[in-house]
Amino acid sequence: MRSFRRALLSILCVLAILAAATAAVLGLYYTTEYQTYTDSFLRRDLAGSVDFLVLGSSHAENGVVPAILDEELGVNSYNISGWVMPMAAKRLLLEKELARNPIRTVVIEIAYDTLSRSNDEDFCEGDEAVIARLDTMGERLAYMRENLSLNQWADVYSRAMFRGAQVWLKKITGAPGLDRAAKGYFGKEAAPLSLRPEEIGPAFQSEPFSVDTYRPENAAILEEIVRLCREAGAEPVVVTVPVSERFLWVTRGQDEFLGYMRDLCGRLGCPYWDFDLWRGRFDLLDDDTSFRDLTHLSDPGARAFTPVLAACLREAPDPSLFFDSYAEALEHSAYCER
After folding, report:
1. Helix, strand, coil percent values for the chain (each to nearest 5)
2. How much is the pTM?
3. What is the pLDDT of residues 4-50, one digit of tens each?
4. For the stretch 219-232, what's the b/e string if a residue is b when 16 or more beta carbons lie within 10 angstroms of its beta carbon?
5. Based on the structure, what is the number of domains in the chain?
6. Is the pLDDT score of 123 beyond 70?
7. What DSSP assignment string belongs to 227-278?
8. What are phi and psi of 107, to 5 degrees?
9. Is position 2 within any domain?
10. Span 6-16, pLDDT tens digits
11. pLDDT tens-digit profile of 263-282?
């Protein structure tokens, strides 16, 4: 009996220590602005003043600069995009911002892989980031209960504890916190990506891509997002942010993505602009300075691209400003000329 009591006491002590550590780590994580996604206090401070949203994945998070939109369009914008953010999470964050802000425009960024994501896969990094952006522990627990399996709860917990430990380290070392002026934008340094001459031929369309992986429930949530925007009096605009020229060169099947998105947005009755097909992209964006990796803009690339997006939002672009297809766009690639 004594051994049982000792074992029980040991277990209770371990649980108590774990609970205290969790409270200390997550308490600081969720109540301070040291991480990219701990912006709930900032968004609450801005409530009632934001009239323009950018909603998407890391392609938009790294690719659209609110400060430039504000200057070019005379708006107060916020970039609420996030790394591998599930569609259900985008809908949830959108609902929160529509409820507390006079939103007039929502730019919805859809990348080539956005509609293939599933909660059955390991995208808990995106879930954990969304959970950090919610206002209360009750909201966080409700999101986890409705969207995550038990195994994913453990994944999210471990990710949150790791980020929380990083917060403690930043606080102890006096590291800078969240850049409030960036309003959700997260710029990154450029990385050289250009193919060497001997790589160009073998690399051409060597990586297959297909819309067969797209999930109907994601398209359905996109439809709900468009509906929510309209019900709130906001105009939805769907865009694709540029990826690197190298990625376009090596990927086969991008015209399937284009056809899918044109059909989907046609049915939804909202504009769709694929800026990979914007005719000026090859002159504006360079693989060695404009991208942080194959599919994400760098800070210089984002600052070059955002004025183009703003110009199209100011006045709807003529279709002639865009290539008709990825096949046509590649004919104008520097890799094709070599």
Report:
1. 55, 10, 35
2. 0.92
3. 677 667 777 777 777 777 787 788 888 888 877 889 999 999 999 99
4. bebbebbbebbeeb
5. 1
6. no
7. HHHHHTTPEEEEEE----HHHHHHEE-HHHHHHHHHHHHHHHT--EEETTSB
8. -85, 115
9. no
10. 766 777 777 77
11. 999 999 999 999 999 999 99
Token pair listed for 88: 């259900």
CATH of the domain at 67: 3.40.50.1110
Beta-sheet pairing, 52-55 with 105-109: parallel
Q: Let me know if 211 is exposed, middle or buried by CB neighbors in 10 A (0-12, 13-18, 19+).
A: middle
Q: Could you write out the DSSP letters of every residue in 23-80?
A: HHHHHHHHHS--STT--HHHHHHTTTT--EEEE-SHHHHTT--HHHHHHHHS--EEE-
CA distance 142 to 216: 24
Residue 282 counted as domain residue: yes
- CA-CA distance, 16 to 321, in Å (whole number)? 63
- CA 56 to CA 185: how far, in whole Å? 11
Rounded to whole angstroms, how far apart are CA atoms 70 and 41? 21
